[in-house]
Amino acid sequence: MEGKNEQRAGLLYGIGAYVMWGLVPLFWPLLKPSGAIEILAHRMVWSLGVVTIALLAVRRWAWIGELVRDRRKLALISVAAATITVNWGLYIWAVNNGQVVEASLGYFINPLVTIAMGVLLLGERLRPVQWVAVATGLAAVLVLAIGYGRPPWISLVLAFSFATYGLVKKKVNMGGLESLAAETAVLFVPALGFLLWLAATGKSTFTAGGTGHGFLLAATGIVTAIPLICFGAAAVRVPLSTLGLLQYLAPIFQFGLGVVYFKESMPPERWAGFALVWLALSLLTWDALRTARRNRALAVKLLVTAAAAPATATPTPEGAAILPGDAAILPSDAAPLGGTTTQAPEAATTAGTEAPNPAQQKIT
Prior knowledge:
By secondary structure, this protein is mainly alpha-helical. It is built from 13 helices and 2 strands.
């Protein structure tokens, strides 16, 4: 009973995290007339404050000394900080400039980009269904380029920056809260310097917009941290396959807001492109679930065989290993509170070579 309650709580935490990431496009327009770069700088500064309070609460500080002594990890953290800066900044700009639908597309196609990077950079092998999904995704980008009259560059930059961020985070191998603290610490000085420069030149909106506006800018740290904490609570309670399905909630909500609330144009060519993307994601999800079931069945067979003949060494059947394309790539903002890290937006998907620990991993 306790295990079921834990899973139920984890499911609620996960739904809460992804719904918050999905609804975040409603928040960024409230920060106008602040520009995207000023909002981004406030997000970096206030996020560090929030995660510092969280670290004080859980008393986790030993990792700082280890990080400072590891130059390679410091360099990777700096690269992660740079890529998430691009991702966060462009997403805020897109939302506040009427491009919510195109921004949501970036997180729909992110799994396909992640798979492509795995093949090109890591030499991964794909199953036939995954190849079909990738080809379908490429066709979708071509259709959308025709529909937009240009390549969907906002979507592509968001997807590639997010996928790069995930790849770097996987190599850093730090807990989500610690990783976010390190990244925002790297960004803190230039972000604070930019805000001070805005204030000195009279261009800051922090105080000029009134007390309410100032509080909203400060709340960017909370908007970043609360979904992260909920995701961390979900990651240690529910199976990875469940998180892999929940991750589609965020771009679905973002897309819905773009069409229904922000009333962005959706001509037939754009619907056709999105339909192809959703078809590709459906293929990936079906293939991942099928492979997970097959691996579980093989694992049970191995256990039964081992129990029947404990003195006999049982070779691992071919195909019992985790196959390419089953790792969950999670939102850029979704670095959990513990374990190793694979990826943390605005939102996420299934791809990669190995199934990460459920406590692994933005995002918005």
